[in-house]
Design a protein that fits this description.
The structure holds 2 protein chains of 2 kinds. Chain A is of the alpha+beta class. Chain A contains 11 helices and 14 strands. In chain A, the strands form 4 sheets. In chain A, strands 4-5-10-6-7 form a 5-stranded antiparallel beta sheet, with no helix packed on it. In chain A, strands 11-12-13-14 form a 4-stranded antiparallel beta sheet, sandwiched between helices. Chain A has a 3-stranded parallel beta sheet with strand order 1-3-2, with helices on one face. The radius of gyration of chain A is 19 Å and the shape is globular. Chain A starts with a strand and ends with a helix. Chain B is an alpha+beta fold. Chain B has 3 domains: 154 residues, Aldehyde oxidase/xanthine dehydrogenase, molybdopterin binding domain (Aldehyde Oxidoreductase, domain 4, 2-Layer Sandwich); 177 residues, Aldehyde oxidase/xanthine dehydrogenase, a/b hammerhead (Aldehyde Oxidoreductase, domain 3); 303 residues, Aldehyde Oxidoreductase, domain 4, CATH 3.30.365. Helix content of chain B is 29%, strand content 24%. In chain B, the strands form 6 sheets. In chain B, strands 3-5-1-12-9-10-11 form a 7-stranded mixed beta sheet. Chain B has a 5-stranded mixed beta sheet with strand order 7-15-14-13-8, with helices on both faces. The longest helix of chain B has 28 residues. Chain B is globular, with a radius of gyration of 27 Å. Chain B starts with 18 loop residues before the first helix and ends with a helix. Classes of the chains: A alpha+beta, B alpha+beta. At the A-B interface, helix 11 of A face helix 21 of B.
């Protein structure tokens, strides 16, 4: 292992200044949230010297604001804290169940949605769920905050749009209106403590007759980055989210997927299962919306 | 011997003596020892599955910061090194990806890590042999050019290191008599024991040539002899102190790091600590064999099995020694058969040398046969318990491997299964139910024990078997029962190689049976001494004194006006009656009773994802006599968990070059707690006549039956059979899709 430095700025401006100072000194920096990915990587695959900048103490990254039109979720809030928030669970069930899937109870006390996105794994569970609910990343940048839709944030396996002097503060999520709800499902061979072989997040809105008026579908672990599947959404919109519509959405996901064969699953298996997950998640989202 | 009259301690469930240290984190495991001036050792491992080593240059590593020792195979004795020695450190060839090639010791772990990268090894890469099919194909690359089958040099060299055969009766005539015949083949993947604690040791060598090794092991006496063997030193040069052990399951009956640590301590004059990472454990320590089993079984319409055959091929890894012999012994052991033929093949491949894993070899072969028996029951339209009962081995049955069974508990387990709610209740909607039989023969071997009585009557039991599954508690219970004193009065202690008499490894489910018997005999020695001391005190003859409930008393009818003397009374006065009380026994235990089991499993396959959920699982097993029932149940549950994991998800995944792709617990999927239902247990007690309290080993049988129980449950639901394991979601979904 190399030499490590650790900084714990208390607000965005301190954090930006720290990142700039380290960059100017030619030091590698890495943002640290829960550390549930970073610390593991530091002890195994990536032992190089660097300065850790801990976002857990950055005030703005710990805000949670549930407004009438919009919700702000700080990037540093632990999954366990979010999941205990019954109001938020009612509003964004898909996102919260995706973060609740990651790691054990102990890990969830540290793990964050922001960290899961910034780790930018193809299999990150919160990413399709964030995309489905239309989340926008709020990024602290030297020139002021900038915003990027979650589907545009991850650029490849383990890479994203953040520069060395930027970091993720949190997410703006439009508050679902009317009979709108969401769901996220992943497939793992175990019941927990595993990484998605495939995942699907679905958000949808029903009118009073139960007809779907809007939908967004995103799938994970079946391409280098989470994908938006407009064809799957189109299959749901205008339907009662019945079996035929669900089957069409499933097929759209299977077609859109471009998975690889690896130790976690084959191409054929992942294509098939991502469709099954979309179908089931859409059914759950429909039932949740109808119950509102 | 086996009549249990009014047992007081045996069968109770007291707290284990090592429990508090373990739950508080105070217990010291293999990596917990630190010594002043200690160095850290690291191993350089082969990047190739099969290659010739052309040269190893340690010079740059030796010059690196903090490095005080570096060794390669050339630094160990090289006069016809044993397979073990070549596995510990490769000589002319590397035989699997991860094979140890060199080692360094440095002042810090980081320095050792860095120095490893400075070792220059030149390889001539050879094609790897990665499966049984490849290994036995005509013109196969040879893992070892001088390996001839069964040592027969009149035949060409072969990857088939050895063959075995058990045969009785006339198989062809038996099949000709059959009304129904089932034939199938089954593959089971490589599985690792998955012990939580990676291998670790610390060694320090003195200037007088003596060395001390601290390590986590199932058998420190074997570590002593094997380390001495690899280093070419007398056994007496090496002392081994066992730490607490975080699981072994057979995988810690062998050595990997110890000779390297001793050697580098000898070179550097400093203590050397070595610890494997989880990845090293997967890549370089012995898992159990991947197997290919072909079985055939025929029966008359009334269910009488007329003949059975099994052809078993087991991957040994890089050196001979797959557990195919035990696989052959076990495959038909549950059945009383006139005609059978069992062939075993020990196959070399370029993978880690396999090591013992809980009932080594039995789960794979019995998976195949218990699947076939299940199909036979279906073809005969016969209840699978009735079919097994009709053919079940019992007292007087000659086992396929030769001996005649004394009383064994298979029929009792089958009867218990028949009455169990997991069998009598309706199968849950849409699910399947599977049943299978398990077996392990168990072993005896050598053990020693001493029993020491302190001046207040406290009893120290000293023996030499590392405590993996609660054996200290078991020893204390047997001592309490024999001496007639409370469990709390006993301290059971695992001594190092110089503190206690020789004990073979904690393995083969032998400890409670064999070492327990030594403890009982050592306690009987104490009782004899106490009677003698009491006789002396009372001026009676020895045969006028009895030992009743922990006290010396005059025998009925002996006219003596004396108060009974407790163990404490006698110990307090021991100085006046001949000195301290010290009992001892050593033995080579015979008659380890075989343990049969029956497992029941309800499972439900998600037909859209191929995932198998275990809804219920019941393990029924003959323990002979459960000394500490909680730890017997723990063995049954633990073995079931491992067997279910192997059946459903565990497997080594290799790439085309022989590199394991899932060398970690994320992708080598042992079950997590939430994957399993509460595993129900039912202990059957058919006492083993060869043990004073009737004990049979119970540790290994539990892993055997779950494999076929799972296969049979999935078969029951789906209506067709998936022959191979694991029943992982991709395999199950592919099979469902193939059915259309």
């Amino acid at each position: 292992m190399g030499a490590y430095a650790y900084l714990a700025p208390s607000n965005v401006s301190e954090a930006l200044a720290a990142l700039q100072r380290e960059a100017d000194a030619g030091n590698r920096t890495q943002m640290l949230a829960g550390g549930t990915d970073v610390l593991v990587q530091m002890r195994s695959v990536d032992r190089g010297e660097r300065t850790f900048v801990d976002v857990k103490h950055v005030e703005e990254a710990n805000h949670l604001d549930i407004g009438d039109d919009e919700i702000f979720i700080g990037a540093a809030i632990a999954s366990a804290i979010l999941f205990e928030n019954e109001e938020l669970k009612g509003i964004l069930p898909g996102l919260l169940e995706s973060s609740d899937l990651i790691g054990s109870t102990q890990i969830q006390g540290r793990a964050t949605i922001g960290g899961n996105l910034c780790n930018s794994s193809p299999a990150g569970d919160t990413i399709p769920a964030l995309i489905a609910c239309g989340a926008i990343c709020v990024i602290a940048s030297p020139g002021g905050n900038r915003e990027v839709a979650v589907e545009d944030f991850v650029t490849g396996v383990g890479t994203n749009v953040l520069s060395a002097t930027e970091f993720l503060i949190g997410f703006r999520v439009p508050r679902p209106q009317g009979k709108s709800s969401s769901a996220y499902l992943r497939f793992i061979p175990r019941t927990e403590m595993d990484i998605a072989v495939a995942g699907a997040g679905v958000a949808l809105t029903l009118d009073d007759s139960g007809t779907c008026t809007a939908a967004k579908v995103s799938i994970g672990a079946v391409a280098p980055t989470a994908l938006v599947v407009p064809d799957a959404a189109a299959a749901l919109v205008g339907s009662k989210v019945d079996d035929a519509a669900l089957a069409a959405a499933a097929d759209a996901c299977s077609v859109a997927a471009s998975p690889i064969t690896d130790k976690r699953g084959t191409v054929e298996y992942r294509r098939k299962v991502v469709g099954v997950l979309c179908k089931r998640a859409a059914g759950i989202a429909r039932d949740r919306a109808a119950a509102l | 011997m086996a009549e249990a009259v009014d047992l007081k301690a045996i069968g109770t469930r007291p707290i284990r003596p090592d429990g508090i240290d373990k739950v508080t984190g105070r217990a010291a495991f293999g990596a917990d020892l630190n010594l002043p001036g200690m160095l850290y050792g690291k191993v350089l491992r082969s990047p190739h599955a099969h290659a010739r080593i052309k040269s190893v240059d340690l010079s740059c590593a030796l010059e690196a910061d903090g490095v005080l020792a570096a060794i390669s195979g050339a630094d160990l004795p090289n006069e016809s090194p044993s397979d073990l020695a070549k596995n510990v450190l490769a000589r002319d060839k590397v035989l699997y990806h991860g094979h140890a090639v060199a080692a360094v010791a440095a002042k810090t772990l980081a320095q050792a890590d860095a120095a490893i990268d400075l070792i220059d090894v030149e390889y001539e890469v050879l094609p790897p042999v990665l499966s049984i099919d490849e290994a036995i194909a005509d013109g196969a690359t040879l893992v070892n050019e001088s390996q001839h089958t069964n040592g027969d040099t009149s035949k060409p060299a072969s990857n088939v290191a050895a063959t075995t055969m058990f045969e009785r009766g006339d198989v062809d005539a038996g099949f000709a008599e059959a009304d129904v015949i089932v034939e199938s083949e089954h593959r089971v993947p490589t599985a690792h024991q998955g012990y939580i604690e990676p291998h670790a040791c610390t060694a320090t060598a003195n200037e007088d040539g003596k060395s001390t090794v601290w390590c986590c092991t199932q058998g420190h006496f074997e570590v002593r002899s094997l380390t001495a063997q690899v280093l070419g030193e007398p056994v007496g040069n090496i002392k081994v102190i066992p730490s607490e052990i975080g699981g072994g399951f057979g995988g810690k009956t062998i050595i990997y790091l110890e000779p390297l640590a001793v050697k580098m301590s000898q070179i550097s004059g400093r203590p050397v600590k070595m610890m494997m990472s989880r990845e090293e454990v997967f890549r370089a320590t012995g898992p159990t064999s991947a197997t290919w089993c072909k079985v055939k079984v025929g029966a008359k319409n009334d269910g009488t099995i007329t003949a059975a055959t099994a052809w078993l091929a087991y991957e040994a890894g890089a050196f001979p020694g797959a557990p195919v012999g035990p696989g052959c012994m076990s495959v038909l052991a549950p059945y009383d058969l006139a005609n059978f033929r069992i062939e075993g093949n020990d196959i070399l491949v370029n993978k880690p040398k396999v090591c013992a894993y809980r009932a080594p070899g039995a789960p794979q072969s019995m998976h195949a046969m218990e699947c076939a028996i299940d199909e036979l029951a279906r073809k005969l339209e016969m209840d699978p318990i009735d079919l097994r009962m009709k053919n079940a081995a019992g007292e007087g049955t000659q086992a396929p491997y030769g001996p005649t069974f004394p009383p064994v508990g298979l029929k009792e387990c089958l009867e218990a299964a028949r009455k169990h709610p997991n069998w009598t209740s309706p199968v849950p909607e849409g699910a399947g139910r599977g049943l299978a039989v398990g077996f392990w023969f168990n072993i005896g071997m050598q053990s020693s024990a001493e029993v020491r009585i302190a001046e207040d009557g406290m009893v120290t039991v000293m023996e030499g078997n590392p405590d993996i599954g609660g054996s200290r508690a078991g020893m204390a219970l047997m001592a309490a029962e024999t001496l007639g004193v409370p469990y709390e009065q006993i301290k059971a202690h695992v001594g190092d190689t110089e503190a206690t008499g020789f004990c073979n490894v904690t393995g083969g489910s032998r400890t409670t049976f064999a070492t327990g018997m030594a403890v009982i005999q050592a306690c009987e020695d104490i009782i004899a001494q106490c009677k003698q001391r009491a006789a002396l005190t009372w001026d009676l003859d020895e045969d006028q004194v009895d030992w009743v409930d922990g006290e010396a008393v005059p025998k009925p009818g002996v006219n003596a006006d004396v108060k009974p003397l407790s163990l404490g009374d006698i110990a307090r006065g021991a100085g006046r009656t001949g000195g301290p009380l010290l009992g001892r026994a050593s033995l080579n235990a015979q008659g380890a009773g075989a343990s049969f089991s029956v497992n029941l499993m309800d499972a439900k396959v998600d037909k859209e994802t191929g995932k198998v959920d275990v809804l219920s699982f019941t393990a029924i097993q003959d323990a002979g006599r459960a000394i500490h029932p909680s730890y017997v149940e723990g063995q049954m549950q633990g073995g079931a968990a491992q067997g279910i994991g192997w059946a459903l998800n565990e497997e080594y995944i290799y790439d085309a070059e022989g590199v394991m792709e899932n060398a970690g617990f994320l992708d080598y999927r042992v079950p997590v707690a939430s994957d399993l239902p509460m595993i129900d247990t039912e202990i059957i007690e058919v006492p083993n006549p060869s043990h004073p309290y009737g004990v049979r080993g119970v540790g290994e049988t539990p892993i055997v039956a779950p494999l076929a129980a799972a296969s049979n449950a999935v078969r029951d639901q789906l209506g067709f059979r998936i022959d191979d394991l694991p029943l992982s979601p991709p395999r199950v979904l592919e099979a469902i899709d193939a059915q259309g």
